[in-house]
Amino acid sequence: MLDFEADHVVVATGARWCASGVGRANTAPIPVAGAAPVLTPDDICAGATPEGPVVIFDDDHYYMGGLMAEVLCAQGLEVTLVTPAPDVSNWTHNTLEQGRIQKRLIEMGVRILPLHAVVARDAGSVTLECAYTERQHQIACGTLVNVTMRRSVDGLFHATEALIGAGASGPKSLTRAGDCLAPGTIAAAVYSGHRYARELGAPPMTGVPFRRELPALATD
């Protein structure tokens, strides 16, 4: 990348879903027995074929968990969606989509188990834990699909930073943008790139990066 001799470089190499199961509900990786299959949305999008019955553990709460359930159910697989939230894709209440998503999954035959987290992956099953009582029980599982958290793909950024730190000739600025800086929504990634372009070459900004109206209040 340094061979281009660009004055400014912004790295936007995205993020990938983690297979570990770490997320809001689980702060440590989900224990997996042996070689029990565990996939991520990236694997499904790359063409991986899960073995049913499929359990989707949605601790992301946006659209991806419901989307994976719909895609795999349409392939004829038996699908169970497990989420610690009270309903499917809970964050989409904010975008007025939640009712449509849950209705479609129910109509397709997806089994929905809310208020539970996957806490162990065993051969042929997963162990679920109630969000309130912490009681555990097992359900059959051929393949576990974890939709929990994403990790930035920032190896190129850090490798380039290390070369510059070691004395290599580099650009005036090296910056991360979008999911490479911090995984977020598509809108957040678009804004990150747009903001970088707007602020490129501008004087350093102090305070908040936007204007606020501060009304003057009358003394009387």
3D structure, described in words:
This protein has about 220 residues and is α/β, with parallel strands linked by helices. It folds into 2 domains: about 1-15 and about 150-200; about 20-150, 3-Layer(bba) Sandwich (FAD/NAD(P)-binding domain). The protein contains 5 helices and 12 strands. The strands form 4 sheets. The chain has a 5-stranded parallel beta sheet. A 3-stranded antiparallel beta sheet has the order 7-8-9, with no helix packed on it. A two-stranded parallel ribbon has the order 1-12. Helix 2 runs parallel beside helix 3.
Outline of the structure:
By secondary structure, the protein is an alpha/beta fold.
List the helices and strands and how they pair.
Elements: E1 8-11, E2 15-17, E3 38-39, H1 41-45, E4 54-58, H2 63-74, E5 79-83, H3 98-108, E6 111-114, E7 116-122, E8 125-130, E9 136-140, E10 143-147, E11 150-152, H4 155-165, E12 173-176, H5 186-199
Parallel strand pairs: 1-12, 3-10, 4-5, 4-10, 5-6
Antiparallel strand pairs: 2-11, 7-8, 8-9
Number of strands: 12
| Overall mean pLDDT | 93
* CATH topology title of the largest domain: FAD/NAD(P)-binding domain
What is the overall silhouette? globular
Report the order of strands and helices: EEEHEHEHEEEEEEHEH
CATH superfamily of the largest domain: FAD/NAD(P)-binding domain
Structure annotation, total helices: 5
Strand order within the widest sheet? 3-10-4-5-6
Radius of gyration: 22 Å
- Helical content stands at 10-25%
Number of domains: 2
Stretches with pLDDT under 50, minimum 5 residues: none
Q: Which class of secondary structure composition applies to the elements?
A: alpha/beta
The CATH architecture name of the largest domain reads 3-Layer(bba) Sandwich
C-alpha end-to-end distance: 62 Å
CATH class of the largest domain: Alpha Beta
Strand content: 15-25%
The profile of the biggest β sheet is: 5 strands, parallel
